[in-house]
Design a protein that fits this description.
The chain is of the alpha+beta class. The protein has 5 helices and 15 strands.
Amino acid sequence: MTEPERIDRKEYPSFGECLYCGAHAGDVELTDEHIVPFSLGGNAVILDGSCKTCAKETTKIENEVGRKVWWDFRTNIGEQTRRPKERPKVGPFTVSINSAAPEVMTVPIPDRPFFTPMPVWGMPGLLTAGQPSANFQEYKAHVFYWVPPNIREILDLRHGDVAELPFPNFRIDHEKFARAIAKIAYCQTVAHYGLHGFRRLVLPDIILGRYSQVPYFVGCPLVNPEPPADPKVKHIVQLSVVDRGHLKLLLGKVRLFANSGTTEHGSPTYYVVCGAPLPGAKRDRSRNENGADATAAGIFTPGA
């Protein structure tokens, strides 16, 4: 596969209409559309890409990713935010010492243990000959956690004391999270092919919440994720053309915070059927490891 394009802080020109509903610039006000949400450190944008009505809907799904699922992680690493004054300096966590009743402690953010659940559901139904459905194959999650190396000092533990961090109850809106992943893949596809350079199928409707059979187009394999990517790579959004029977499909792979995780396992890779190529659409004809036609890969570098 060709070397991925580094697209962080890249600006793609406006198409003069909303990427989602098609409203024209002469009729509505358009605003810039981030490919990866700003809250996750994304700074690549499609200029004047979204009308305000659609932006309200995409903000809801981006909040599921940035202000819920990845919130503790973002806060811990000091990821960029539009509301720096609202960022907490301390945070709570629950601990049980020597099998006593759990208690809530509040410590500075750098000293706070946290858990981050990454939902996984099985592959998109369209790739596995499954039937369209509003229900995912599975509702599971890979859970990553971080415990500060000075945790014994933070808890003022004595020799022989045992501390346990109870596993928290997570409430993930799986549909919203999947739609947010679809938005990232869709925006990268638009940036590469152009708004009308491919068949978009139902992706805009999925993103806006108008199509309920999200699992048919969005998924994640039920396997342990591969090790983290290069430390210099924050996010990876990769596109390819794959054959499914008589169909050619545009497949997007999204890996958020690809450089994070343990030595053995990093963050999961999500799969999105972004649409179908049009006859004669330009793409790189080199082949990837799965034999699919390679198209484009966008990587987002930290601190760029």
